[in-house]
Amino acid sequence: MDQLIIPENYHSALNLHDTQVGIKTVKDFFQKALSEQLNLLRVTAPLFVQPQSGLNDNLNGVERPVTFGIKEQDDEEAEIVHSLAKWKRYALQKYGFIYGEGLYTDMNAIRRDEDTDNIHSIFVDQWDWEIIIDRHERNINTLKEIVRKVYKALKKTEKYMAIEYDYIEEILPKEIFFITSQELEDLYPDLTAKEREYRIARDKGAVFIMQIGDYLASGQKHDGRAPDYDDWSLNGDIIVYYPVLDIALELSSMGIRVDEKALMRQLEIAGCPERAQLPFQKAIVRRMLPYTAGGGIGQSRICMFFLRKAHIGEVQCSLWPPEIIEEAAKNGITLL
Fold first, then answer.
1. What angle do CA 323, 324, 325 make, to 5 degrees?
2. Active site residue 181
3. Is 308 one of the annotated active-site residues of the chain?
């Protein structure tokens, strides 16, 4: 029960019917705004992949993918994707995209090992996007430029929602603040990584925390990242302060993707150099794939944020413990 945050005097401004209208309003506007900012084309993407392809996102390396056997293929095993972080880079080449173009897709995943709370669910829905960049654009300035474009789409969506719904006020700051995970640790050395995120998000309103995945000076990681898609020196998270729950809310994770050197270095640090022999990773080493930048943006997260909901279960259908459903209902939080 301690995983459920109950905001004082909370009540949803929208009933269930109008919430569904609001969800569609947010999603329709935001994906159009994002596509315009990054020059993206919507594509069709897989729900499952073969484990031996190396295409699945292994997250922190401990989460178990949902697997099943395919009857007509001699019960060959397939995995529900954790995300499409790697598949998108492969798809850009296969689908014939060129420099300056990009794709996005609706990604649905099941993360069976997720610890659920107000903002986490075992069901994950996000927009996965990826754009082709030049090798010489693999730098911090390119990353920041892309972040500002994504943030602009978020700002435009909030402004639109504030016009459409009287109860919504604009709370995102004009500009997003940039800081590295090491700078953040230096600023708050006595706090945990999550406490540092909360402090900087509360102070700045919106922040992009850069360079996530490698070890900090303290010997700890700010957060885990798979070693074979983001370049840990050129990635980060968009985090905003969410006053409804008084929390730091991550809306997006993104980065410039690994080249062959970054891939080998990070596989070594992660203790899994053998992954370089998988088809996707081998294609990176052999420079057979384009240089890209990409990320994921939580669909339910931004619906929750822009509709000012207290629980992610108010904007998506998932499974929750009975006691959580009961306690939420007692406090005006109706889980779908």
1. 90
2. no
3. no
